[in-house]
């Protein structure tokens, strides 16, 4: 009974708009100040959350908010079918609509909502680096059988990856239903429902495992060499739980945060790349993150990027699949493939945002003395999958350049039963993974952040040159002229179209006098740490030559441009430049 991600995002935006109109945040700040000033004892160092909630209730803030956020008897279907010629307004008397068509869901209806609350614990250090500490799926429905709709729980949070059996701490949680339910259920009813769901889920997962084993035996009977192919049916999540790979992908709509599939690919590309940590040798540690854990820490392995990009492309109505195979030197890898209605097969590299059109070689043609080098970096492909389909590559060769991606041809691709996949991966089929959360808009102010990084880099350059016994003279106009180039670079990364370079080059020619030399060095980062970026720049001999420039009438320039994306991901472009008079 959960809301689809796009409706949840719309509901969230409407609530935010209404809270802004009511100036709820301003009223909370006023009450917080009054409470601290009037009620906090001199020996108390801080105000607890419970004290703040009590203060808000005494002053009627919570009641006022709930009065404004009414639920009316209109179904989602009626809302979706509304004519675009009759836009809905949202004024002071407007109401929010709930999917079940009632004023407030009763306890029996809420008991049928099997989606758990997914909690992710992230640690952020002083440099802004994030670490995934714990990921926990909380069963919240015990509150439906508690008196007055209030209950407390204590849960033990376990680590992730290789530390999934190690406790990281205890979390005390207090649940309160608001508005209160008219009628609570007995705890026995709640426990019985949960036990039945667990039994049903376990049976579905058992049957799918039996089917998957049979499918694998049949796949090996086609050709014994299939045993060495990367056919990934199950993958471990951050908690060490084996899940069908199809459950990691779901169609995801980005609302108004991303406009095109290529912009979505750029967003996924600027999320950081980090392989799962390995203790000791033995190759790569397997860890596929759930979407929420991946987005919370804003970095992950190639499989995490591919699953997110595939989900976004499915949301845009494309026929998208995650490909599992290898790239150069046989390194395991995952990327995304889309199949066009005209038969065009396009590979999307989720770590770089690059796209490649696949043109398979014709086995009937005579072999060339020197076959052309493929444009893409992929070597072999073992299987492809999305939220509904899983297909194993059963062609004589699993080399990507020789593969034909006609997924309807069962002589080339062995499919799994879509019904079997649906039984364990469809929404509501099991309690394994809750619905994907909607993407959040960026909280980063691009202009302010760009200026801050630029000022920090100027200081770092000046200090570095001072240590070398060099003076530093900055030219603001030259710095400003670098902006169009940075915008052009980001546009090209997103669209694969180059534009605007002619105007930039013309402006630079006018800004550099005769007899002077201009040098520029652009570089791209996905983090906002100025000192770390500066250290990386110095490792480039071209950039170091600019920063340490010696000569007559040396003028330095630096420009930073931060491009923001959902989930506070950023593409940071930096360009160092200098001009000086050439002396022979």
From TrEMBL:
<comment type="subunit">
    <text>Interacts with CCP110 and CEP97.</text>
</comment>
<feature type="domain" description="CEP76 N-terminal">
    <location>
        <begin position="10"/>
        <end position="69"/>
    </location>
</feature>
<dbReference type="InterPro" id="IPR038765">
    <property type="entry name" value="Papain-like_cys_pep_sf"/>
</dbReference>
<dbReference type="GO" id="GO:0046599">
    <property type="term" value="P:regulation of centriole replication"/>
</dbReference>
<dbReference type="Pfam" id="PF24654">
    <property type="entry name" value="CEP76_N"/>
</dbReference>
<dbReference type="InterPro" id="IPR056290">
    <property type="entry name" value="CEPT76/DRC7_peptidase-like_dom"/>
</dbReference>
<feature type="region of interest" description="Disordered">
    <location>
        <begin position="80"/>
        <end position="103"/>
    </location>
</feature>
<comment type="similarity">
    <text>Belongs to the CEP76 family.</text>
</comment>
<keyword id="KW-0963">Cytoplasm</keyword>
<feature type="domain" description="CEP76 C2">
    <location>
        <begin position="95"/>
        <end position="182"/>
    </location>
</feature>
<dbReference type="Pfam" id="PF24652">
    <property type="entry name" value="CEP76_C"/>
</dbReference>
<feature type="domain" description="CEP76/DRC7 peptidase-like">
    <location>
        <begin position="286"/>
        <end position="416"/>
    </location>
</feature>
<dbReference type="InterPro" id="IPR056288">
    <property type="entry name" value="CEP76_C"/>
</dbReference>
<dbReference type="InterPro" id="IPR052299">
    <property type="entry name" value="CEP76"/>
</dbReference>
<dbReference type="InterPro" id="IPR028926">
    <property type="entry name" value="CEP76-C2"/>
</dbReference>
<protein>
    <recommendedName>
        <fullName>Centrosomal protein of 76 kDa</fullName>
    </recommendedName>
</protein>
<dbReference type="InterPro" id="IPR056289">
    <property type="entry name" value="CEP76_N"/>
</dbReference>
<feature type="domain" description="Centrosomal protein of 76 kDa C-terminal">
    <location>
        <begin position="443"/>
        <end position="581"/>
    </location>
</feature>
<dbReference type="GO" id="GO:0005814">
    <property type="term" value="C:centriole"/>
</dbReference>
<dbReference type="Pfam" id="PF24656">
    <property type="entry name" value="CEPT76_peptidase"/>
</dbReference>
<comment type="function">
    <text>Centrosomal protein involved in regulation of centriole duplication. Required to limit centriole duplication to once per cell cycle by preventing centriole reduplication.</text>
</comment>
<keyword id="KW-0206">Cytoskeleton</keyword>
<dbReference type="Pfam" id="PF15627">
    <property type="entry name" value="CEP76-C2"/>
</dbReference>
């Amino acid at each position: 009974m959960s809301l689809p991600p796009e409706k949840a995002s719309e509901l969230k935006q409407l609530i935010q708009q209404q809270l802004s109109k009511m100036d709820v945040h301003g009223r909370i700040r006023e009450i917080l100040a009054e409470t601290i000033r009037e009620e906090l004892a001199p020996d108390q160092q801080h105000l607890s959350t419970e004290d703040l909630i009590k203060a808000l209730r005494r002053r009627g803030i919570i009641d006022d908010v709930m009065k404004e956020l009414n639920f009316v008897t209109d179904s989602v279907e009626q809302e979706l079918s509304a004519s675009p010629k009759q836009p809905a307004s949202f004024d002071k008397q407007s109401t929010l609509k709930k999917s079940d068509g009632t004023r407030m869901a009763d306890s029996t209806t809420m008991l049928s909502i099997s989606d758990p609350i997914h909690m992710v614990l992230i640690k952020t250090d002083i440099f802004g680096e994030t670490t995934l500490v714990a990921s926990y799926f909380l069963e919240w429905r015990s509150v439906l059988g508690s008196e007055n709709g209030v209950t407390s729980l204590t849960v033990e949070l376990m680590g992730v990856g290789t530390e999934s059996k190690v406790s990281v701490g205890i979390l005390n949680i207090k649940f309160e239903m608001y508005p209160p339910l008219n009628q609570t259920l007995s705890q026995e009813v709640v426990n019985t429902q949960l036990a039945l769901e667990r039994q049903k889920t376990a049976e579905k997962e058992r049957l799918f495992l039996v089917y998957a084993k049979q499918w694998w035996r049949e796949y090996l009977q086609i050709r014994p060499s299939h045993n060495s192919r990367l056919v990934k049916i199950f993958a471990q999540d951050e908690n060490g739980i084996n899940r069908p790979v199809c459950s990691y992908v779901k169609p995801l709509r980005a609302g108004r945060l991303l406009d095109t599939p290529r912009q979505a690919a750029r967003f996924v590309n600027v999320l950081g790349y980090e392989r799962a940590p390995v203790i000791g040798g033995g190759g790569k540690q397997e860890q596929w993150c759930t979407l929420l854990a991946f987005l919370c820490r804003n970095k992950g392995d190639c499989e995490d990027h591919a699953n997110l990009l595939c989900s976004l492309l499915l949301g845009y109505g494309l026929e998208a699949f995650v490909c599992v195979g290898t790239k150069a030197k046989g390194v395991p890898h995952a990327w995304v493939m889309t199949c066009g209605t005209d038969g065009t097969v396009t590979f999307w590299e989720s770590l770089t945002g690059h796209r490649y059109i696949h043109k398979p070689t014709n086995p009937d043609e005579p072999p060339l003395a020197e076959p052309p080098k493929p444009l893409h970096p992929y070597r072999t492909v073992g299987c492809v999958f999305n939220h509904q389909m899983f297909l194993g590559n059963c062609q004589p060769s699993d080399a990507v350049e020789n593969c034909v991606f006609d997924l309807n041809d069962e002589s080339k691709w062995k499919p799994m039963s879509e019904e079997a996949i649906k039984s364990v991966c469809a929404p509501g089929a099991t309690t394994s993974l809750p619905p994907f959360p909607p993407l959040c808009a960026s909280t980063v102010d691009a202009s302010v952040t760009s200026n801050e990084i630029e000022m920090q880099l100027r200081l770092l350059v000046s200090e570095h040159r001072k240590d070398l016994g060099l003076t530093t003279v900055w030219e603001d106009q030259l710095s400003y002229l670098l902006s169009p180039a940075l915008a052009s670079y980001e546009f090209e990364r997103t669209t694969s179209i180059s534009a605007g370079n002619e105007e930039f080059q013309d402006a630079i020619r006018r800004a550099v006098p005769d007899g002077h030399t201009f040098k520029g060095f652009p570089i791209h980062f996905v983090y906002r740490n100025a000192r770390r970026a500066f250290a990386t720049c110095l490792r480039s001999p071209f950039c170091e030559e600019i920063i340490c420039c010696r000569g007559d009438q040396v003028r330095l320039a630096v420009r930073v441009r931060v491009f923001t994306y959902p989930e506070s991901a950023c593409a940071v472009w930096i360009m160092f430049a200098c001009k000086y008079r050439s002396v022979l």
